[in-house]
Write a structure and sequence with these properties.
Keywords: Signal
Mean pLDDT: 80
CATH class: Alpha Beta
CATH topology: Beta-lactamase Inhibitory Protein, Chain:B, domain 1
Number of strands: 4
Organism: Parasphingopyxis lamellibrachiae
Number of domains: 1
Number of helices: 3
Protein name: Beta-barrel assembly machine subunit BamE
Order of helices and strands: HHEEEEH
């Protein structure tokens, strides 16, 4: 009887334990069409800054990073994640919108914002 009570108690305590929050390793929406984004996908923050200039926003969370660039025609969000533990985060996902918040062509936005 004591063994049953002890095992039940341990099982109940195990249910209370929480696992640590996972570190994001990839964006939840995988990019299926990267045509025209070759200049951006795989770039690190320094490469993006050379391409677009300084970001208007720089968000960091649990090893991931989002850099936002903007111009007259669009806003570009670039999502950087480390390809493996201890490595520099690189762009794995890109999103683009106009001033009204409507989605725009990502490749066209990259071209509009890129320094020549």
């Amino acid at each position: 009887m004591r063994k049953t009570i002890a095992i039940s108690g341990l099982a109940a305590l195990a249910g209370c334990a929480t696992a640590p929050a996972p570190v994001p390793t990839a964006v939840s929406r995988p990019m299926t069409n990267t045509v025209g984004l070759e200049r951006v996908i795989g770039q690190d923050a320094a490469g993006l800054t050379r391409l677009f200039g300084n970001p208007i926003q720089d968000f960091r969370e649990a090893g991931a990073r989002k850099l936002q660039f903007a111009g007259a025609s669009c806003v570009l969000d670039t999502y950087l994640y480390p390809p493996s533990s201890g490595r520099e985060p690189v762009v794995t996902y890109v999103d683009a919108r106009n001033a009204a918040g409507e989605d725009v062509d990502r490749a066209a936005c990259v071209e509009a914002l890129a320094r020549r």
